[in-house]
Write a structure and sequence with these properties.
binds fe (ii) ion; six-stranded mixed beta sheet; alpha/beta; globular
């Protein structure tokens, strides 16, 4: 099986992993960037590009060419840096066609239809389920892994599996399922689908939150075999009923993510801020709608 090089970048502010997937032999310069971050300070409304610039610097140092800017889902906890990175390095921003459902869900909340088209045309490309594609020399495909959101997508590039928030590392478990359109039952089915991949494949997660007392720093990868043996929520032997009951109980009353409202509206524009008013860009906050 093809083994692309994978470089992870951790953003400590949002616990997000961004990945660059590339040909380590240097023979093919094309790469994919998965789930990038645009830093955002809620209190001041100030964006910063520190996280994205680290990735840009890496791409430049390796003299890579950005072929794809892939999003695993519409993130609720950080703004995507895809639009910013594309403006610097080019590349095709792509996500699953299932985000049309996410657009539909949030349209009555933000009423941003004027600059957030409901047909998803703000993304350069929408993947169909099971679609195959290439990242440089590597065979790639997507699988639909809903649960955390209805649109979660896993990208499989060679032996590397980028699951976003469908699953986390073994001692963390899986992503919360209480966002609109989320489903613990779907999350279980998606996780089991992922655990059906080959044992030696490498699963890269979208976040890491080392549990208190775990005595480890944030990490990004576990093999399918390790996940099957040890994932605290979905390892082999845990039934769907048990999983769903515990997932739902644990999600009940969970706090709304700090950056939910800025993240969703910006990420539904593929990282854009929409129409400016006299040169000023705005984030819209619906009052008394969420939570
Ligand atoms: Fe997420």
């Amino acid at each position: 099986m093809q083994k692309p090089d994978v470089r992870g970048f951790f953003d400590p502010d949002t616990a997000t992993w961004t990945y660059v997937v590339y040909d380590g032999t240097g023979a093919d310069k094309r790469c994919a960037i998965i789930d990038s971050v645009l830093d955002y300070d809620m209190a001041s409304g100030r964006t910063k590009t520190r996280s994205a610039d680290r990735v840009i610097d890496f791409v430049a140092a390796k003299e890579l060419e950005v072929q794809w800017l892939l999003e695993t889902h519409i993130h609720a906890d950080h703004l995507t840096g895809a639009d910013y990175i594309r403006s610097k390095l080019g590349g095709t921003i792509a996500i699953s066609k299932h985000i049309l459902r996410v657009l539909e869900t949030w349209a009555p909340i933000f009423h941003n239809e004027a600059d957030t088209p409901p047909d998803g045309q703000q993304f350069d490309y929408l993947f169909a389920d099971d679609e195959t594609f290439k990242v440089g020399p590597f065979d790639a495909r997507i699988i639909h892994t809903p649960g955390h959101t209805p649109a979660d997508t896993t990208y499989i590039i060679g032996d590397a599996v980028f699951v976003g928030d469908a699953m986390f590392l073994p001692d963390v478990g899986t992503g919360r399922c209480d966002f609109p359109g989320g489903s613990a039952g779907d999350s279980y089915e998606s996780s089991r689908k992922l655990l059906g991949l080959k044992d030696n494949m490498r699963m890269y997660v979208g976040h890491d939150y080392p549990p208190e007392g775990a005595g480890r720093v944030p990490q990004c990868m576990a093999t399918i075999a390790e996940q099957k043996a040890a994932n605290i929520r979905v390892k082999d032997g845990i039934s769907k009923e048990v999983y769903v009951a515990k997932r739902n109980a644990d999600d009940k009353g969970k706090a709304v993510p700090r950056l939910l409202l800025p993240s969703i509206q910006v990420n539904l524009r593929a990282g854009g801020f929409g129409k400016a008013t006299k040169g000023v860009r705005y984030i819209k906050i619906p009052v008394d709608v969420i939570g």
